[in-house]
Amino acid sequence: MSLVSLPAELLEAIFEPLSTSTLVSLARTSADLYASASRLLYSRVSVSTYAHNLSAVRTLATRPHLLPLVRSFSISLVEGQDEVDETYFAMLYQAIRGMENLTDLEIHIDASLSWVLFDKARSPDLTHYPNLANFSCSFPLDVNVARFLEGTPSLHSLQVAASPDFVILAKTAIPFLSTYTGPACLLPQLLGSRPLTTLFLSGDLAPEDVESLAWTPNVPKVPGSPEPEHGTTRAAEMSRIETLSAITSAPPVAVIAALTKACPNLTSLRVITTCAFWETPDTTFYGQIANALASLRSLGAFELGGMQWEFRPKSVAPADMCHEKEWLSPPVSPRSADTDGAAAYDSDYDFENAFMEWGY
């Protein structure tokens, strides 16, 4: 049995481990192998300044039969280092419009070029990407990005750039969005009708932004999600945020306390503070943070300003019988000795030496 007589699925399984150069050679070998080799060659396309493969955009734009093969496409250009003009970006626009089977799209080019996603002057028709799940770009939420997102009904992950100016996204757009990376100023319109669980916030998280996390009305129930436990508060029932990372210039104690109330179901929290401390944080400062964290029953990881915190059972009872946690910070909560009973908490410790025992 010759190689060309094998089913296409088997050929692709054989070709999958091969290098790009080998696949190119196979595609040129015979017309019978061209289809299988091309499907693998163009399923994932990554264009970048450093890869020296900017010509791939021209290839895709001039060979539209290849565009439906692309499942993942990324482009990253360094401003000032690439000799590209508007003609090049017009070809990029044309190529993206033809990639209707995309599942992943990443575009990092000049922020003023968002028209490569949607350009009403070139074509008022909206292109639909029914399978697109992940989209990352260097553009803010402008009119072109907003219109593009209206054609991505299956999007789960979105990353946009920060900007003081933004447009209002259609309420029916990206209904299944679960992960968001971008400025906090977009939260009020994103949380209203989308099942967001993961937030990586850029820019400065202001107290009023925290307030927007506390209420997420009209969020559709995700198929398969458990019903809220009897006795849970309305805030706990409504808030779906489980992972949150943010930067804030506000006093961290106040922000963390507000976050614990707004997002009671957090499992992972990372807060980077740029607040100016005129005095060195003392045990009171860390104690207030630990007390705020104690209200998050599901929290399993916390980091403040690059300092990793740990937790231990609050009770001296066996770990499997204790459900409350005590959060510890290295400078003020040295690791207790492995002793039984409350005496372990009453002992005097050498803080300086105890701090050196902490591992990161």
TrEMBL record:
Mind telling me which InterPro entries this protein's record contains?
F-box_dom (IPR001810)
In this chain the F-box domain maps to: 1-45
Q: Whose protein is this, by species?
A: Phanerochaete carnosa (strain HHB-10118-sp)
Stated name of the protein: F-box domain-containing protein
- According to the lineage, what is the superkingdom? Eukaryota
